[in-house]
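Supplementary material to the annual report.
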Amino acid sequence: MDLRYTDEEQDFRHELRSWLQSVLGDVPPEPERHDWAGRRGWDSAWQRTLFDAGYAGINWPAEFGGRGATPTEHLIFLEETERAKAPYVGMNFVGLLHAGPTLIVEATDEQKDHHLPGILKGDHVWCQGFSEPGAGSDLASLSCRAIRDGDDYIVSGQKIWTSFAHVADYCEMLVRTDTNVPKHKGISWVIMDMLTPGIDIRPLRTMEGSTEFCEMFLDEVRIPVSSRVGDENDGWRVAMTTLSFERGTAFVSEMLQTMELCRDLATLATKITRSSGVAWEDAGLRRDLGRVTAELDALWALTRRNISEATRTGLVGAGGSVFKLAYTDLRQRLGEIALHLLDRASLSLDDIGELPTGEHVQGRIHGLSMTIAAGTTQVQKNIISERLLGLPKEPRV
Amino acid sequence: MDFWLTDDQADLQAGIRSFLDGRYDLEVTAAREETDAVIDPAGWSDLAEMGVFSLVRDGLDLRAAAIAFEELGRSLVPGPLAATFVAASCDALASAADGARIVGLFEPQGELAMVEHPMQVTDLVWFADGEVRHVDPATLSLTPVTRDLDPLSPVASTTDLAPAFDVIATGDDARRMHSDATLLTAAVAVGVSAAATDLATAYAKEREQFGRPIGSFQAVKHLLAEMFTKTDVARAAVHAAACALDGASNEDPTHTVSVAKVMAGDAALFCGKTGIQVHGGMGFTWEVHAQRYWKRAVVLDATLGSSDHHAELVAASLLSS
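Predicted assembly:
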């Protein structure tokens, strides 16, 4: 066990740090939260900047245009970009972290040549059409139907939680190609060109107000059979390959932001007054915030352990579930601390007075989604108790 | 950066484990409850012979110690393990390394001090005013407790808060001893959490109600998942703090030790109480070991600063950077 970085890792960090300093001055201000076209342009420009400097697809193998970085270098990359306040992966999230890695492992050479460069350069934005109104935690029960018609599939159904569907060029999508076999065995993984007729996209209003999420209604959309990745009815396995690309780095940027949130809240508490004095004089508040901060530091250690495991074995295993369970619960608790601190100022998403209160209210609302998205807390607990503790499995049909 | 057990560390862990399985069977340990010698003198010597108190002198480090002490916690080894370990690093009490001394803690709190193992400790160390003081327990007027919360950690109280002492370490040495002892207390607590989780998991696989193992019900298996998670997160914090104390990290040792103590104390208390819950009525009996883990968790959390105390220290660090 050694948390020190090697000389090579330090060199990588310093080189990256000075490159970031040299380019960040030219990055225009971030567009408004809901200016989707503006954000797409901004995210794409940053991706192009990364590409030109050789940092695009940091974790992709070099033979497919990536940097081929080690998990630890990936960690350093996320740490440095976050600390330098560089743009985040943004809309290129699905392409770089989901669709691209899946294509690298499963696609034909022709499909790779056609799609990978566009993802790396930031030319093409991808979205993900997996979840459906009737298929959430039980994703494999999805019913979006694809019926073969010559060289095409004709696809009809509904998808939900499709981030950035209204600005995306392509969609990685799971469709049902066989209804007469057990549910996992009748699914195919296809690439859908978002300009195809028959796609109706409606923004989904969440409790945060407007967000990047959409609903997608598909009415006899024609998708060429040549856009299928992997064999027909083998799509469930293809979708699971994305998981094998996870190296324990998924929440690094998030966590660093949350650490800063803790420091900001402490500072805020020294400025908010109560009838009995300054809020920070409340030992209960200090202890609550101290506990969350301690847990965040512990999870930072766990992150580096998961990354070390990935370096040694190529996989994170169920350590990812342990992390997600603990981290998302922590975010909920931190949000509650923030609202208790703000008291009636928490009724506003705008800053109140001179203090930056709005972001804490926004963050608390967002926290409510975190124990649900990407595998609910309850699903994570099933995974931990079954895979790590060997307890009897939930019934699966 | 490689935050994973080295082969040597994994071997050490396995070696200590197999030693403890043979020498510190929990049935045997529990049979010493309510006797005058909860600490088995021969067993204590064997721990010393195994090198548990002299790891650093023998060329190992705090990471090795943290790994070993987690195993001691799993077996609920009775005795002031962490205090004896740090005392052994001090010239004045060096013979603690050979098992010749059982060194406890003198921790005054408010109007009184609760001294563990009053019948058996040979020496006490007292962390105060940035120095480490040596107190002879024979000079204290101790009032034994007749009903101990944890019969494997018997206590006596004293209101004599200004005993005679010798200063045995100051400055950096004193700080290091305090940090080491706190970290190793946290490491023991992680072992207690892990053992409580293992015991409850085994029970949930075997105990049937409504015609099924209770571990097949989400209401139960999710409790076990939480126990596992809290233990694993606390272990990561303990290992990170051990790295910091060894200089194998650029993080502040004092801060990481507080983080470890918060996480390990909370994890042990949670796993202790939840282990009892998973066992149902049997968990509340004297016979089942589930209760022993919770009791030790209370003792460990109250040693060298509770998780509340260390959470305050961590909170203070938010404003300092």
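Chain A touches chain B through 55 residues (CB under 8 Å).
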